[in-house]
Design brief:
alpha+beta; 4-stranded antiparallel beta sheet; Int_alpha_beta-p
Length: 220
């Protein structure tokens, strides 16, 4: 009888501890309004919605939903018809439209097919810039030669608050390619895959990138 009472006491103490833990844990509930939801739809098989971010061009403008579609077909003039991926601007009451990137593109030195632009989309906040990444972007050396090599370095691009390619973006409009001019072996930077994650620091003064494939996939 004493053993049974002791077990019952321990069980009650455990219940009390769990109740305290539940009360102390921060949490909130909300209901999803499915009856009046705003639905945004992108191209078929484009992975539309892989990454999203809310963006506001200024304090007086309405919020815009930015949507990454890493397998979308490009509508840009220089890369039309290539599955580069895309970023879509989706105002609340309007149809989503792809943001024009118009990369400076050299087919002899770059491969943008299946680069997965839109795997990451980040906004620096109201009036801030927008960052988008393509972690499968490749640099090509000695194309169509027996010594041809391809390095999956990845890249990220910076857009202004108004969603235009930033005039101060690096590498002559190609974006931020951190691993581009470094040792291209897999032991170093040849498979960087920069941009599998990226973002802005809290003060929005700096950008950070993840490069999971660097140093034999140890990452940096």
């Amino acid at each position: 009888m004493r053993h049974s009472s002791h077990n019952l006491f321990l069980l009650e103490m455990l219940r009390f501890a769990l109740l305290l833990a539940a009360l102390a844990s921060p949490g909130s509930l909300f209901n999803l309004d499915t009856s009046s939801a705003i639905v945004k739809v992108g191209p078929p098989n484009s992975l539309f919605g892989y990454a999203i971010a809310f963006h506001q061009q200024s304090t007086s403008s309405d919020p815009i939903l930015l949507v990454g579609a890493p397998k979308a077909i490009s509508e840009d003039r220089r890369s039309f018809g290539i599955p580069t991926g895309a970023i879509y601007s989706c105002p609340t009451e309007q149809t989503c439209r792809p943001i024009k990137m118009e990369f400076i593109y050299n087919a002899q030195k770059e491969n943008i097919t299946e680069q997965w632009l839109g795997v990451v989309v980040r906004s620096a906040g109201v009036g801030g810039k927008v960052l988008a990444c393509a972690h499968r972007y490749q640099l090509v050396r000695a194309l169509n030669n027996v010594a041809e090599t391809r390095s999956i370095v990845g890249r990220c691009v910076l857009l202004s608050a108004t969603l235009k390619p930033d005039i101060y973006d690096t590498d002559s409009g190609s974006g931020y390619i951190f691993c581009g001019n470094r040792m291209s072996t897999h032991e170093r930077f040849g498979v960087c895959q920069q941009g599998l994650d990226a973002g802005f620091t809290e003060d929005s003064q700096y950008i950070y990138f993840g490069a999971t494939g660097a140093y034999s996939w140890k990452g940096l």
